[in-house]
């Protein structure tokens, strides 16, 4: 395959489905990378993002290239190959700690690499996935939850949303629409591509979809590496009007965001953000942000956690130039999906609190995160504070029994949790 | 069952030498475990694991890695890949097609619990190549996933002291994208930039590492 021709490579990439990863990536990446321009510090990484190859083949060093002696040997753990069995899930949930009055149970199992969840109008729970390449529909049949794999062979369909009878799936570089989906669960209508002005690389290319009331869908665009001067089409959040194709950039300077929600009080978009790796076990902190007006810059790659200039990439900028986070969530906790609590089952003080699914660390000697956090905050982000809501999925120093990836409020007010490690959906409920 | 497996693995019965060999091999797998790991007592081997030992015993057949003492996570991933057809190998696909999730869990647990084989490593007749391989492993961050001594952890297998030909084939298959990688395609990415010489070097270095 001619990897220098963008369109053919892009087509082939799509055609190959799961086999997305990229032959000759390292070689091409090296060719496209790495000569320091005059005036730059010698160790300052420089990418030639003007070259087409850059878009197709993200630099080979984006994951481990910034490894330090201190952090040596840390690497993202691979998922278990199979979803956890009923016995394993029952044992795992015994270790989960919740506030008094709350309980957790398995809602559905056998949902490999479950990521973002969305409700259909008729009560179907749609679930995206990571490398499993599937989209699932979970339906109730006589009190039993049945998991159907309704779409297969996408690249990395992490983000799903539902609106006006249609299921929307974001698959790295395109948003797909499946019309009248709840009447076609066993035979979905052909997908329509409703937006594809998106770079095709996989690294930090997995996404999350959130509709606001007016019908804009918010979409995050992560940079294809750990830290660097990002290409101009990424490190941002856009919103897209899928009826007209109109798109606008609503936030800049964002690293990897895979979660957000509209504040029911203000209509503003809030989002979680994963900070850079390879600084230390305790720096920098991941963030919760709020877009109070269009076009704010949240600091990446110059400044992290509101007050930490990047050791290499500050490039003369000060943190005062950028929008600070509403809340620092902790280093390497990996906040992903989040939702404002709009149900009535939980005690009244939970109303409009934010639940955040923390996926947990890989770039840290002792893992942290891997839990559900509760953030109590005003609509303007003042006086935000956080407490742990559900924890106990970390096993030992660096292993998991589960990794929360998303949360969703159910019609009855229970909170569902998608776990992409155990391949399961949990239900957290409250009773006096 | 033998017949079914043979048909699935070898295709419809055709009078070719390769076909005959394939059928013979698959038939052998499901009848008589040979080359069983020295320490294992045949009676204690779970039925689901018996076909594996014909090729993956103490002295693996050409092309097969040793799997005793391999990480459970890795074994399960490979069986899942074979079962879904993402990883191609007629014999392994035919065998994996018959496995349930619980079979795969049991196989992972069984082989991970066996002691890794500990024969003397092959003599290192190319110490320069060994040093080059050690350096290459550092440069490519191989030990971030496979461990400082390449004994494996989680989904990253023990690659120390595997047969050299198997290691070279595995790297070549990752490079050509013929074999899927777990862990966010880490191996596909790493192997993509390897030259033929790099692969030879790495396979030699890992094969002669002491057990």
Question: Can you characterise this structure?
Answer:
The complex is a heterodimer of chains A (432) and B (211). Chain A is mainly β. Chain A is built from four helices and 29 strands. The longest helix of chain A is centred in the first third of the chain and has 10 residues. Chain A starts with 5 loop residues before the first helix and ends with a strand. Chain B is globular, with a radius of gyration of 17 Å. The longest helix of chain B is centred in the first third of the chain and has 15 residues. Chain B is mainly alpha-helical and 211 residues long. In chain B, helix 9 runs antiparallel to helix 11. Helices cover 55% and strands 0% of the residues of chain B. The N terminus of chain B is likely disordered. The N and C termini of chain B lie far apart (37 Å). At the A-B interface, helix 2 of A face helix 4, helix 6, helix 8 and helix 10 of B.
Estimated helix fraction of chain A = under 10%
Overall body shape of chain B: globular
β-strand amount of chain A: 25-35%
Count up the helices of chain B: 11
Q: How many separate helices of chain A?
A: 4
Give the % helix of chain B. Answer: 40-55%
- Nearest-angstrom radius of gyration of chain B? 17 Å
Main sheet of chain A? 5 strands, mixed
Q: Work out the radius of gyration of chain A.
A: 21 Å
The CATH architecture term of the largest domain in chain B is Orthogonal Bundle
Low-confidence parts of chain B? 1-40
| CATH homologous superfamily grouping of the largest domain in chain B | Cytochrome c-like domain
Overall geometry of chain A = globular
Structural class of chain B: mainly alpha
The rounded distance between the terminal residues' Cα atoms of chain A is: 62 Å
Oligomer: heterodimer
What's the average pLDDT of chain A? 87
**Count of distinct structural domains of chain B:** 2
């Amino acid at each position: 395959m001619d990897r220098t021709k963008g369109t053919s490579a892009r087509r082939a990439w799509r055609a190959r489905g799961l086999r997305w990863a990229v032959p000759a990536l390292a070689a091409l990446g090296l060719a496209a990378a790495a000569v320091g321009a005059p005036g730059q510090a010698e160790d300052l990484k420089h990418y030639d993002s003007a070259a087409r190859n850059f878009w197709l083949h993200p630099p080979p060093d984006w994951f481990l290239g910034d490894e330090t002696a201190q952090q040596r040997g840390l690497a993202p753990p691979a998922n278990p190959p199979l979803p956890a069995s009923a016995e394993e899930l029952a044992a795992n949930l015994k270790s989960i700690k919740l506030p008094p009055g709350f309980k957790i149970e398995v809602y559905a199992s056998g949902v490999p690499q479950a990521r973002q969840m969305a409700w259909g109008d008729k009560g179907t729970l749609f679930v995206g996935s990571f490398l499993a390449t599937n989209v699932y529909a979970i339906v109730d049949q006589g009190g039993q939850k049945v998991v159907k794999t309704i779409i297969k062979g996408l690249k990395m369909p992490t983000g799903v949303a539902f609106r006006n009878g249609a299921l929307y799936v974001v698959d790295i570089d395109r948003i797909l629409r499946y019309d009248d989906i709840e009447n076609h669960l066993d035979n979905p209508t052909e997908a329509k591509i409703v937006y594809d002005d998106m770079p095709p690389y996989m690294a930090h290319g997995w996404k999350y979809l959130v509709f606001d009331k007016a019908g804009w869908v918010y979409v995050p665009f992560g940079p294809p590496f750990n830290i660097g001067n990002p290409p101009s089409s990424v490190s941002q959040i856009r919103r897209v009007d899928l009826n007209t194709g109109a798109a606008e950039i609503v936030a800049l300077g964002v690293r990897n965001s895979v979660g957000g929600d509209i504040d029911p009080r203000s209509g503003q978009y809030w989002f979680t953000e994963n900070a850079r790796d390879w600084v230390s076990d305790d720096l920098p902190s991941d963030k919760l942000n709020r877009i109070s007006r269009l076009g704010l810059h949240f600091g990446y790659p110059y400044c992290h956690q509101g007050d930490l200039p990047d050791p290499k990439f500050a490039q003369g900028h000060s943190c005062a130039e950028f929008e600070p986070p509403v809340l620092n969530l902790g280093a390497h906790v990996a906040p992903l999906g989040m939702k404002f609590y709009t149900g009535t089952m939980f005690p009244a003080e939970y109303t409009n609190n934010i639940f955040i699914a923390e996926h947990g660390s890989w770039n840290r000697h002792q893992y942290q995160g891997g839990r559900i956090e509760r953030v109590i905050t005003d609509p303007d982000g003042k006086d935000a504070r956080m407490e742990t809501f559900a924890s106990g999925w970390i096993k030992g120093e660096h292993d998991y029994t589960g990794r929360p990836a998303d949360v969703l409020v159910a019609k009855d007010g229970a909170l569902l949790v998608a776990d992409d490690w155990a391949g399961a959906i949990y239900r957290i409920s409250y009773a006096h | 069952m033998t017949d079914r497996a043979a048909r699935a693995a070898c295709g419809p019965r055709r009078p070719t030498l390769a076909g005959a060999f394939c059928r013979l091999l698959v038939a052998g797998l499901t009848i008589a475990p040979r080359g069983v790991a020295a320490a294992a007592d045949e009676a204690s081997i779970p039925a689901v694991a018996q076909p594996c030992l014909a090729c993956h015993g103490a002295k693996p057949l050409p092309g097969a890695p040793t799997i005793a003492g391999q990480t459970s996570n890795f074994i399960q991933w490979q069986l899942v890949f074979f079962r879904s057809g993402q990883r191609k190998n007629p014999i392994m696909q035919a065998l994996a097609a018959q496995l349930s999730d619980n079979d795969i869990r049991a196989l992972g647990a069984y082989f991970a619990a066996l002691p890794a084989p500990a024969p003397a490593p092959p003599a290192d007749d190319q110490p320069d190549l060994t040093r080059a391989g050690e350096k290459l492993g550092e440069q490519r961050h191989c030990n971030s996933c496979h461990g400082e001594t390449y004994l494996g952890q989680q989904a990253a297998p023990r690659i120390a002291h595997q047969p050299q030909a198997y290691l070279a084939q595995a790297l070549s298959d990752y490079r050509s994208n013929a074999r899927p990688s777990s862990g966010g395609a880490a191996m596909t990415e790493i192997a993509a930039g390897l030259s033929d010489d790099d692969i030879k070097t790495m396979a030699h270095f890992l094969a002669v590492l002491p057990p």
